[in-house]
Amino acid sequence: MADARDEALALAETAIALLRDAGASDADATVTIADKFACEARDDEITKLERSRGRTLYVRAFRGKRRATLSTTDLSREGVAALARRAVAAAEYVGEDPHAGLPEPVESDGVCDHDLFTVAPDVAERADEAKLEEALAMERAVRAADERIVNSDGARVRDSVVSWALANTRGFRGVTQGSQVSRAAAPVVRDGDDKRIGHYGTAARGWATAESAQAVALHAVHRALAQIGARKPATMRVPVIFERDVAASVLGDLFSALSAANVALGNSWLADRVGARIGNERVTLVDDGRLRGGLGSSPFDGEGSPTRETVAVEGGVLRTFLSDVYWGRRLGIDSTGNAGHGTVEETNFYLVPGTGTLDDLVASTERGILVLDTIGFATEYASGTYSRGARGIYIEDGAPRYAVDEFTIASSFGAMLEGIDGIAGDLRFDGTVVSPSFRVAEMTVSGS
Amino acid sequence: MTALDPALLSRVLARALRRGGDFADVFFENRLTQAFKLQDGLIRDASSTVIRGAGVRVVVGQRAGFAYSDDLDEAALLRAAEAASLIARDGRAHDAAVDLAPVRAPALYREHAGEPADSARYVELLGRADVAARAFDPRVVAVNAFVTDELQDVQIASSDGRVVTDRRPLVLLGVQVVARDGAQRENGYIGDGGRTNIAVFDTVTPESLGREAARIATVKLGAREAPAGEMPVVIGPGGGGVLLHEAVGHGLEADFNRKGTSLYAGRVGERVASDLVTVVDDGDLPGERGTIAVDDEGTPGAHKVLVENGILRGYMQDRLNARLMGVASTGSGRRESYRALPQPRMCNTFMPAGDSSPDEIVGSIERGLFATSFSGGQVEISKGDFVFMIAEGYLIEGGKITAPVRGATLIGNGPDAMTKVVMVGHDARLSHRSYTCGKGGQRVPVGVGIPTVKLSSCTVGGTGRG
Fold first, then answer.
1. pLDDT band for position B466 (cuts 50, 70, 90)
2. Domain A2-225 carries which CATH code?
3. Contact check, Cβ <8 Å, B65/A53
4. Contact A72 B52 (CB under 8 A)
């Protein structure tokens, strides 16, 4: 795959030259070349088969302190040149922003993708045939696992190798590569007159480190069966346990509140809280761009800053926001190596795990709810209100009693972080935002 | 470049079908988007985006092979066709030649633009929205506004011998306001536009959008915690149509029904809602955000009656699912870009007017919730459970709308909620044009609409007690 890296870097260098020709005083260009494979099996046959190479160019162009961006999938020289002229002309209409501009050049610390194990060799080595066979095997495993499984939305196997290069007019040149594989299954169980789907998927840098196809199939089946006979719980205030995938979605909302961009725009309930206690001593939140084999690991971020490990919340105290160079300048902090393309992005963001298992959390809960899935998403970053539709298991005397659905769980992020009274040790880096399962001492459950 | 050479498309289709297949198509698009963003009273960013490339698909029964290319030379397109053809490797080869006859999509968009407007106009619109939002209330502490102007040229060539072209404009002006009172922060958002050019903002003024976003944010500053539990709920006209989109619409998309994963599978002709409920999906309302003159498979958008007086009439179909279900496509095959396979999707989904007056509806409730608008929603397709986040909502007490509430969600079950529709207002209207729907990782613009509607009971998720 060395050729894709070379091609990406050459295209990025061409782009900044064209931007200079169009009148930009400074520019940086990112070229991404993604080789992707995806297949889906359903009913004993392969129902989807996709293989493509996609190339995308993203450029930030500056005219002094005025910034414009462009992105295109047309990487022809003429196409890029025309868009460069358009972007530079549009920059005339942008206000002068004292914080705009490329990062100051920094000495590379010499870390490369090889050191971070971002490419698993088994991805390029594995034949398509084996992946098709695996998807079919997962679909068979799902349907054979239990007689109540009557249907399936398909089993999916995917992989990709993404090469990306960054070049800027201050002399930065960087190129890196990462692989990713994923497996997912979606069995449908019949429950009287109802149907219920269980979804489960996993991802990793390579096949050898990913959860096995059999484990994924069985986990999905377990999730489907766990919903059988679900009823609406009573409205009450009780402890709520977040199973690790659902816990990860809560962490995604916390990342948004920690993003310097949202903070600077007044769109975060954490604004003005650095140095303050925002949760109890169990809560430590880390963003680690250098995690070995992490799905978000990279030697440098989207604008060339070295990535690093940042403890954003330590023992419940907010230490720092997560930032790129621009939003950092606006808040008066350094970049934490979290530049995406025009946004602040997580690298590998997680809640530091405790000990014990999800079962231990359940066993130590007198009466409460184990949440296995939520629906709905956050929009209320400014107020810090948390409210989601949910389904899961009702717990009494430390044991799971029956499935529950059609209810909401609600609180505020602040109260939840203060109320976390148990964190399991089941953290797994199968995404870029991950969490161990945890329990919040009290939340509002709205049902009947 | 706004189209590929038909002779080249013909050769690509022939290559795609060389291992067999029921049909093949090539979707080419060239989309230019110009956007400006305002924060803290300053234009902070201008962005120009081109999405250009072609996707090749081969369909065999329920199987689809797919590959795309951003490189548009013949060798690259034939490589994509070859990769897509692999799905049909056990199939019988076709006779190669595909003759293509050109078809032009009907004109449904207002004032086609060939190029984005002068940049100064976008900047002026954002400045006006900003000033109006700040002038609305001293508690407004931040205003973020953006405008996007997009023009998408699509060309769809199919092995059934048609090559269809369409030119789709789309504009959106969005204003987000943060208001603050002491430690409390609340936000308000509104956007509008549609399949037209930025002249629409002469009528839908940026001032009105700025004030509306500020109004929503400041109303919430004085709001109480939302109550929790079951109660009667009134859905406000326009934006409340998100309810139909989530509670009914997704469940009627053909893929879920063909595969039997939707709760509505196999139920055409059955009662699925109270007899007051009619639900329509319409791709051909001029200028609306969800409007498409042809879908992304080249089929004209249609007026589809999904539910009529409570009876399920049919599903929204794309070509693959329509073939398998033995019906015609309803022009619902949509894709996010040339990099994705089409899926059956909604266009503009709405409920026509009923007989009740809005006052009569609110007046019928002793204690309940009025949901003016939603900030988002989601549905689980197999059982139909849905959730909506209420962007603006009020208590109903003694038959009157009283205090605003914040942090409320609605949760329920689609089919169950549809049987609980007990009053439908005569004030049907479409929402402001700002909704985008996500499905299977693909986002497409949609429209929603509804009159004032009463649900006899729904679960409200909040943190307040009673």
1. very low
2. 3.30.2290.10
3. no
4. yes
Comparing CB atoms, the residue among B42, B48, B413 nearest residue A90 is: B48
pLDDT digits (tens, 9 = 90+) for A59-98: 999 999 999 999 999 999 999 999 999 999 999 999 999 9
- A127: its two tokens: 């034949």
Domains and CATH numbers, chain B: 6-221 (3.30.2290.10), 225-461 (no CATH)
Of A73, A379, A388, the CB nearest to B53: A73
Give the pair of three-digit tokens for residue A229.
Answer: 């006979």
B461 touches chain A (CB under 8 A): yes
Per-residue pLDDT tens over the stretch B289-314: 999 999 999 999 889 999 999 999 99
Tokens representing residue A251 in the block: 């962490």
Side by side, the strands of the sheet bearing A317-318 are: A317-318, A309-314, A285-288, A349-351, A433-434
Which residues in chain B (271-330) have CB-CB distances under 8 A to chain A?
A: none
pLDDT tens for each residue of B77-108: 999 999 999 999 766 666 666 788 888 888 88
Find the CB nearest A388 among B34, B261, B387.
B387
Nearest to B150 by CA among B176, B107, B115: B115
The answer to which of A75-84, A273-282, A341-350, B103-112 has the lowest mean pLDDT is B103-112
B86 touches A: beta carbon within 8 Å: yes
Each residue of A224-249: pLDDT tens digit? 999 999 999 999 999 999 999 999 99
B53 touches chain A (CB under 8 A): yes
For residue A427, give both structure tokens. Answer: 């953290």
Roughly how many angstroms between the first and final C-alpha of chain A, as a whole number? 57
> Which of B47, B377, B461 is nearest residue A446 as measured by Cβ atoms?
B461
The answer to whether residues B424 and B354 touch, using CB atoms and an 8 Å cutoff, is yes
Domain ranges of chain A: 2-225, 236-446
Residue B142 contacts A where some CB pair is shorter than 8 Å: yes
**Chain A residues with CB inside 8 Å of B26's CB?**
none
Q: What local confidence, expressed as pLDDT, does residue A368 receive?
A: 98
Angle between helices A2-21 and A77-91 (to 10 degrees): 50
CB pairs under 8 A between A and B: 257
